[in-house]
């Protein structure tokens, strides 16, 4: 599964694996792919440094990257001040806070212990937090910096290029992809409707070739609805130079979800058990459909708030739901490929399956084309 881009980065397989778990990122790189560690949960730079130290020590010298979240549009503080977490908290209406309390009470969700801090904060959606993450990351030999919400600011792109780091950005339409190209982005990730997390409204089969044509000759990675080697082959046939996989790693043995109940839900879920909802961050994000997402998507409710207000509003609630494994409310961002995630496997086993399926797909196409053997 090699392409010009994978050869440029020195990886065996053109499989880019996004994950919030350092052990998974390292295992992806060791298996011959390109591991990308998600940084959004690191509000403490020292914690990010600790985990990058661990990744660096466990990739066996192979390349890896970092994914940050720097929203293209952000909530501004009064008088053009730098937006702080306190500023954001002050913007959250009391009615929305009461809705959270009522929903948790309806399901009997216990509170956190006195003095126990929420373990889930989305301050990482704020630009100044992402910049502290970059200050740490650029001290490491990362080969790729990806941004999940549009092109990074020009100074960030320039800083990455000065350090010989490629920059990738996700796009849900050809129009967005062209903007990335104009901004000097090196790689565009065409993220289809099927993908987990923040995603647009165009399916991968339509989106991938549109983006390939829109940004040529920039390399494109296909994302969304890809979880088999046959689907990898399809993506490359559509013109992509690799695939960007995220959901598939959630049920690997190296992943650390800290929730047996959530793992069971993922393994049992079908491809129709996800929904694009603003419940988690304020932007449409595909995730498991739960009674929590249903409550926020109900027209009778107060509606969600814009990013980053929604993320801060629900942070403690999500921590409580996860800690006490309240199954009707328990969910996570995940794509429609969850329907194929029905067993726990190692990252290496996932790669073995991907390469085997890829070879089968190539052989099938060759037979259809009246040729024999791999091209």
UniProtKB/TrEMBL annotation:
Cite the entry's keywords alphabetically.
Dioxygenase, Flavoprotein, FMN, Oxidoreductase
Q: Which CDD domains does this UniProt record tie to the protein?
A: NPD_like
Sorted alphabetically, which Pfam families does this protein's record hold?
NMO
Record GO terms (molecular function): dioxygenase activity; nitronate monooxygenase activity
Q: Does the keyword Oxidoreductase apply?
A: yes
Give a yes or no for keyword Nucleotide-binding in this entry.
Answer: no
Q: What is this protein called?
A: Dioxygenase
């Amino acid at each position: 599964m090699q392409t010009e881009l994978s050869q440029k980065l020195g990886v065996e397989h053109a499989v880019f694996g996004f994950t919030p778990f350092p052990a998974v990122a390292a295992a992806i790189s060791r298996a011959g792919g390109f591991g990308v560690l998600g940084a959004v949960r690191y509000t403490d730079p020292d914690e990010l440094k600790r985990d990058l130290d661990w990744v660096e020590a466990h990739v066996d010298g192979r390349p890896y990257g970092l994914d940050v979240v720097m929203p293209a549009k952000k909530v501004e503080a009064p008088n053009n001040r730098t937006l702080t977490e306190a500023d954001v908290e002050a913007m959250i209406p009391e009615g929305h806070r009461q809705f959270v309390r009522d929903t948790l009470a309806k399901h009997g969700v216990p509170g956190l212990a006195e003095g126990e801090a929420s373990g889930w904060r989305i301050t990482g959606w704020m630009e100044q937090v992402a910049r502290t993450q970059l200050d740490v990351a650029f001290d490491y030999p990362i080969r790729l910096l990806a941004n999940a919400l549009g092109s990074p600011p020009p100074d960030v792109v320039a800083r990455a290029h000065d350090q010989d780091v490629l920059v990738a950005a996700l796009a849900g339409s050809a129009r967005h992809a062209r903007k990335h190209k104009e901004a000097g982005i090196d790689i565009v990730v065409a993220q289809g409707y099927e993908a987990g997390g923040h995603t647009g409204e165009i399916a991968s089969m339509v989106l991938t070739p549109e983006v390939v044509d829109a940004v040529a000759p920039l390399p494109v990675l296909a994302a969304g609805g890809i979880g088999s080697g046959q689907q990898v082959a399809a993506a490359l046939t559509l013109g992509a130079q690799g695939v960007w996989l995220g959901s598939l790693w959630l049920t690997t043995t190296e992943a650390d979800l800290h929730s047996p109940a959530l793992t069971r839900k993922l393994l049992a879920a079908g491809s129709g058990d996800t929904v694009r909802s603003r419940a988690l961050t304020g932007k449409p994000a595909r995730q498991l459909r739960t009674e929590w997402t249903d409550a926020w998507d109900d027209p009778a409710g107060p509606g969600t708030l814009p990013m980053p207000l929604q993320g801060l509003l629900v942070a403690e609630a999500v921590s409580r739901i996860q800690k006490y494994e309240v199954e009707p409310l328990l969910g996570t961002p995940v794509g429609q490929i969850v329907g194929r995630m029905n067993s726990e496997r190692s990252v290496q086993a996932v790669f073995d399956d991907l390469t085997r399926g890829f070879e089968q797909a190539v052989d099938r196409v060759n037979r259809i084309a009246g040729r024999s053997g791999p091209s």
